[in-house]
Amino acid sequence: MSLQLQMEDTAEGRSSFFFGQADSDNGPDEVDYYPLILKKANVLASQDSLKDAIDWFLAAMHYGPVRPEDLGTFVDCILRNFKRKVVGADAPSGHNRDSDPGDVFDCPNCHCFVGEAVTVACGHSYCKRCIQQRLLSRCRLCGESVHLKENRVNVILSGLLEKWFPEELKMSKTLSQVGELCRRECYQEAVSLATDVTNSSDPDMVVVARLSRAEAYMGLKQYDLALEDTEFCSSFNCSAEALYKNAMVLHEMGNMDESLRVFLRCLAVDEDFLSAKRQVEKILCDLLSTADEKVKLGMRESTQSTSPHVRSKTIMAEMQCQLQHQARASSAHSHTDNQKISESLEGKFLSRAHSIRVDSLKSEEGLKRVFSAPQLRTQEKGSLLKRKLSLSDVENHVVDRANIKHKKQGLSTGFKQLVAKSNICRIVPKNLLDPVDFECSLCMRLFYEPVTTPCGHSFCKNCLERCLDHTPHCPLCKESLKEYLACRKYKVTTVLEKLIKQYFNPEYVERTKFHLEETKELSDLTKNVPIFVCTMAYPTVPCPLHVFEPRYRLMIRRCMDTGTRQFGMCINDPQKGFADYGCMLIIRSVHFLNDGRSVVDTIGGKRFRVLSRGMKDGYSTADIKHLEDTRVEDSNELKNLQTLHDAVYEQARVWFQNLEIRFHNQILQHFGAMPEREDDIQATPNGPACCWWLLAVLPIDPKYQLSVLSMTSLRERLVKIQLILTYLQSIPNN
Q: Which residue ranges make up each domain of the chain?
């Protein structure tokens, strides 16, 4: 069997460096070096060792196919080198524009009129075209990830733009139609429509139109015209989209080297441009594969011209045996041993591979024929690949090419004038301003903290949350908002808020004042305190709650929004609605479930007495007065009180320890361990914590518990608890 067939038809071809070894060297315990070598290559790439990484990626390809998705770290390494050597001193202007919010009516991505605006989860709005073509993976303004699912056009914002700027909206819709025609492969119609938009007075609109037209030209395989459009656009604003489409045209024309450079420039402007990164990965994979095939071809030609008995005993075979020996030893050792093997691979593997290539070039005439002009020798092929990726000569090339473009093509005087005019922000005609256009359809007041749902409808944040408390559907179109509710990302729609502040500032100030007054009213901890009518609560005792009723969802949300993080807890009273005494609960954490329910972790705070009752938005409220224990000032009386406390504590400890194990564990799970004995029993207004813990765990009627809760005398409370413990201990089998 020839060495060439041996590589293709047997497993040895994947486990040898350039060619297979003898069949007798193979065994069932043969080690796969591919993951180890690929991992080493990625480590070198992450450390910016570009040339070493290239060697190791080439080596990996002899053991298995390197896929484009395996080169993500390699691409990042090349991009960092590119930024340092090319972009460093003269960064593309497109990056600066992305960080500049500019006109409120401009799309943050393409800087064109936002037109049919789509509001994403972070609250920023983009034109429909950028969303449909998936031109961004992160928000240009805040950097948050953009998940492009089924976001619809913002109904309020698009309606306002149609009213204020009808002509520009018409052109924006035309550009959307161009994209739709390209998706339907109606390229000639797309070219015609895009050409009409290039006569616009808005230079950014012209750029977007020419980019759309370039896409249609590519569909028609008219690459020269497509290249002309994309180079014009990249010379104007150097945006990531313009560079990406320019690179795609070059790629389709077969100019791989230039397309790689432009793709890297695109990633330098926007490193999160996933489509460009995927293209770079594919190009690099092709480059590595080409270099790898040249090396394999040269080695096969070289070995075929010599005696196979001699070649089978070369240094490569010896090195292969050493590698296998080291790998077998590594399976019995720790990660440290693996690291040592990886380091030994780096020295022996690459140095011997280099020596084989050099020796082959010197000794074999057949290899000269294979690598003669116009092909490169193996060593020169590797050097060329490193030169392509080291980017040492790219800076001058990019600058010179840009100068040639401007001299050859340039920007017309008329277009430069349009660019100058484009710096003026759009102003809404005063006669078209109407505050009614900014009213929430739920509360019929001016938007306050407007949020936009995935279906495109906008509401006040509080109004929408209250609707979602009852049903997870849009209040207007009834579309399901279950995913939106589960994410709980109610981000303010920035464009609407800016427009309200800019054009309706007096109304906005009044609306804000009303909201602050309402918030202040809800923040009072003695008047109109929200009351949760459910169970008994005690000071210092945990009280976990499962909140599912819409009224209590609202109540908990208000407690969190106002910052008080407190509400009252009372038991039910058939005549009065809720009892005359209760305990404040302090919210420690809230865990929201996907359907809007929540698990609230609270702990008891101050006790209170109800002075008056009320109702607000479905839940009960009350004016309250906090309770405190009466302090004992006489020293003898205090000493007797301390003695009583110690006796009750010891009695309770014995009772708790003698409980059945299942009851004992249930108490520990729900209420925690029994509090420690306190030295100062009057340190807090509520007295010792052990009294409240006992009151919570003792099996007594809630009305009896309520009577003890209302006591302001520590002595009376201890006596009551002592009587209960004495009774429980007197019951047989308790």
A: 22-92+238-400, 526-627, 635-730
